[in-house]
Amino acid sequence: MKVTTTDSAPSSAPAGQLRRIGTQTDILGESPLWDERRQCLYWVDIRQPAIRRLDPATGHVQSWPMPDLVGSIAMTDDDRLLVALSQFIAVFDTASGSLEPFVRSPELIPGHRFNDGRCDRQGRFWVGSMHNITRAPEGVLYKLQGRGALEPVQDGICIPNSLAFSPDGQTMYFADSLHYTLYAYDYNTTTGEMGTQRVFATTQAPGFPDGSTVDAEGFLWNAQFDAGRVVRYASDGRIDRILELPVQRPTCCAFGGPDLSTLYITTTSQKMTPAELKVQPLAGALLAIDVGVRGLPEPRFALSSRHKSRITPLHSSL
Questions:
Q1: Is-contact 41 104, C-beta < 8 A?
Q2: Per-residue pLDDT tens for 268-308?
Q3: How far, in Å, CA of 183 to CA of 85, rounded?
Q4: Omega before residue 206 within 30° of 0, cis
Q5: 296 domain-assigned
Q6: Which domain holds residue 216?
Q7: Which among 153, 184, 150 is positioned nearest to 170, based on CA atoms?
């Protein structure tokens, strides 16, 4: 599998100053994840499609092209990546470049793809699907445990986003972006079941909630697409801080760095006119800023879980 790289010197910008990382421009950057074992940041460009990896110590960015749209990723407990492609979940080994189909979406609706995904604190992978073009309310939120099947949990979704979990794992966050609402649920960490839905926070059009992360103090950071900002919410939904950005469409955020004190923000350049790109030269860039708080280690998918699959796994190579 071909690998592309870009290089840039580590930024010398002072703490608290927003900076661009690397020279690459994503069409639709998403799903940033910090790997505390390897001290690197992974993220995806859904539309390229590609998986990218940053070594912050050198500024080196490595890219692996994917065979199909890649909605989100998660790290596995054996140091590989779980990859949500358009119609199935795969496991990717960055060392060898091998991509192995793992489990197929049970409905296989034409035109649908996976979007936002994240592991809970116990290593279950949650991921939502959506119609790639129409954004019709046909998407499904799934749960995946070990080598089991994708279990449908909620349907009627337009754009699944903002999957995140509180530090104790007992609150789950989720948004259907076109509702302009972030929801919270009591979460049973033993069974992996969502409780009753409640409104956590709302946004104003045209800005809708995109990807989120939770910091060590239990605050939710949400990238607000078309609003040009990342908002930090307290656990009661109160706005604590607003980080204004020089791009209109941030997509997701994640904490990284040796002490998890750097907030990385993915952005998009998709469908922007030359005039818009001239005004927003950082559109599609990976951004970083030190915000004075720390994040949490990203949970890993429990690949070794003994849950038996209820569907036939894929064995064909890509």
A1: no
A2: 999 999 999 999 999 999 999 999 999 999 999 998 764 43
A3: 25
A4: yes
A5: no
A6: 4-290
A7: 184
The total of other beta-carbon atoms located within 10 Å of residue 13's CB is 13
β-sheet bridge partners, residue 34: 41
Please give the single-letter amino acid code of residue 40.
Answer: C
Q: By the 8 A CB rule, do 220 and 210 touch?
A: no
Token code pair at residue 104: 């197929």
Q: Is 19 helix (H, G, I), strand (E, B) or coil?
A: strand
297 occurs within a structural domain? no
Average pLDDT over residues 236-255: 98
Angstrom CA distances, 64 to 34, 133, 200, 314, stand at: 17, 25, 37, 22
CATH of the domain at 240: 2.120.10.30
Query: Exposure string (b/e) for 238-270, b if CB count within 10 Å is 16 or more?
Result: eeeeebebebbbbbbbbbbbeebbbbbbbbbbb
Cβ partners under 8 Å of residue 269, min gap 6: 25, 26, 27, 277, 283, 284
pTM, full prediction: 0.91
Cα distances from 132 to residues 44, 106, 180, 210, 259, in angstroms, run 16, 17, 19, 16, 37
Residues annotated as catalytic (active site), given as ranges = 210
- Please give the single-letter amino acid code of residue 82: L
Closest CA to 42 of 34, 50, 96, 260: 34
Provide the percentage of residues in the chain whose pLDDT is more than 90: 85
Residue 191, both tokens: 């069974």
Token representation of residue 218: 């239990």
pLDDT tens digits, one per residue of 15-45 = 589 999 999 999 999 999 999 999 999 999 9
* Integer Cα distance of 35 and 74 in angstroms: 10
Asked whether residue 210 is domain-assigned, the answer is: yes
Structure tokens, 136: 């019709």
In a domain, residue 304? The reply is no
Higher pLDDT, 6 or 172: 172
Please tell me the total count of domains within the chain. Answer: 1
Q: Which two tokens stand for residue 61?
A: 């960015």
What is the distance between the alpha carbons of residues 266 and 192, in angstroms, rounded to a whole number?
Answer: 28
